[in-house]
Specification:
Elements: E1 7-11, H1 24-36, E2 41-44, H2 56-70, E3 76-79, H3 85-98, E4 102-106, H4 115-127, E5 133-137, H5 139-142, H6 148-157, E6 161-166, H7 171-181, E7 186-189, H8 195-201, E8 205-208, H9 215-226, H10 230-249, H11 252-262, H12 279-292
Parallel strand pairs: 1-2, 1-8, 2-3, 3-4, 4-5, 5-6, 6-7, 7-8
Length: about 300
Amino acid sequence: MSTQLSGVLTALASPFAQDGQIDEKTLRRLVDRSIDGGVDGVVACGSTGEFAAMNAAERHHVVETVIDQTAGRVPVVAQTGALSTREAVELSRHAQDAGASVLMVVAPYYEPLTLDETLRYLRTVAGAVDIPVMLYNLPGATGVNLSPDTVGQLAREVENILYIKDTSADMAQAGQLIHRHGDVISTFVGWDSLLLTAVSEGAAGVMAGTANVMPAELVSIHRALRSGELDRARAEWARIWPLMDAMMSAPVIPAVKAALGAAGFPVGGPREPVLGLDAATTARISSLVEALSGPSTAR
């Protein structure tokens, strides 16, 4: 699928069965849940998808399953970053061969790298494939923040680096990406609660774990912003904000899974060492999910 990537992309959760294995049947249903909600793309093996807790074979399985279930209905972004350049190249080539639309590449997230080491890694991985690449700026996990000017320089240098997911939670940085370098790279904000601000500012879209839970609501807000209906967007945003805030204020992986369970779509718990939410936070999120399921203005 060669269309320009934009809009609301669901950072898919990874369902696990009681034995701890990937629940392929539920993963396929989760893909359909997002697509039925109108999202513009889905993301396999992102941070919300717990890729760091999977081995290479499991990551292959998730990417292949998501691509197969999507069946060309929306683009599939496969996150293929890894601890070593060699593994990232292998995962990237596999995802390309499996039919991914875009690769998203996070920098290694254990050994703190210098900026030069990070850029060499990104150039090597992007150069190993032919399809578009999305940089994944996740300084909280990698220890390296890709500045807007560095991103712009890299996008001008490497032909297939076309997108960035910025999860710095720094809207000033996102604004610089959008306004200084929008001619060479499209910016997706990876902090769900910044959707309204980011899209109003001109971001290409948002990559959201919360879209597992409320895809139609986020899509409706995005469409309202794109059509200039700011009052409608704000009203719908105010309606979902309590749940958005509760989920983004908790550890995101178990929060998404708890909210899905409350919505009647159980996907199992997170893989240890990540644990589920405490009882009070789970109850609060559950009550907000229930409240959101009432009469809606989303369309």
